[in-house]
Specification:
single chain, 209 residues, alpha+beta, 2 domains, four-stranded antiparallel beta sheet, 10 strands, 33% helix
């Protein structure tokens, strides 16, 4: 497959340093909007189990450029790659993270007692599950209960962090907020400026039932 598209197969490891929990880098935009506008109802139970939390991964700059170049060739009638089929597995093999990098991330998650770990076919995300307490410990954050627009949610109140050694391949975290139940109370007031951002967060959290 690689020779057809004239690009190298994924072999380069990006995670080269030992993974140490004591050396951390914050994940940008990892504080949920619900935590900034919701009414704080207190700390969440650490024993609650949640599913489908996701680490979003990013390709190396070299592979990102190569992928966009290839996608352009697939649409170019004068290219030898024109109209060739490129499956998700092909993209993973050609441009995804190296297997050893993925193994290091998976091993780190398991060391924090997180489970149901699954790497996406395109090697662009790692999904996992676990108790809130173990997620808090792994990502150095805290989950709290919030009421927004008459519903109760769980969301992380503080920015998450990951070990610096593999922060280079992490672009973000998702599915960190969860709808827990409807609350029969007066609708919370949300300013128009924040309404769009909060509405998106509410919709995303509601899908994580």
């Amino acid at each position: 497959m690689a020779h057809l598209f004239r690009v190298p197969m994924t072999t380069e490891e990006l995670i080269r340093d030992p993974i140490m929990d004591s050396v951390r880098v914050n994940v940008i935009d990892s504080i949920d909007p619900l935590a900034t506008v919701g009414h704080d109802l207190g700390a969440a139970s650490g024993w609650r189990r949640v599913e489908g939390v996701t680490i979003l991964l990013k390709r190396s700059d070299h592979h990102e450029v190569a992928l966009h170049t290839l996608l352009g060739e697939l649409r170019n009638p004068s290219s030898s790659c024109y109209c060739r089929r490129l499956a998700r597995e092909d993209i993973a093999a050609l441009f995804g993270l190296a297997e050893k990098d993925l193994e290091k991330i998976v091993s780190w998650l398991r060391s924090h007692f997180l489970d149901s770990i699954r790497v996406s076919p395109g090697r662009t995300a790692v999904n996992f599950a676990g108790t809130l307490r173990n997620i808090e410990t792994a990502f150095r954050t805290q989950f709290r209960r919030y009421r927004v627009e008459g519903r109760e949610y769980l969301a992380n109140a503080y920015e998450c962090s990951v070990p610096a050694a593999f922060s280079i391949v992490v672009s973000g975290l998702s599915n960190l907020s969860f709808l827990t139940r409807d609350v029969p109370s007066k609708r919370e007031a949300v300013s128009p400026r924040k309404f769009h951002k909060v509405s998106n967060a509410v919709r995303r959290a509601s899908m994580n039932l």
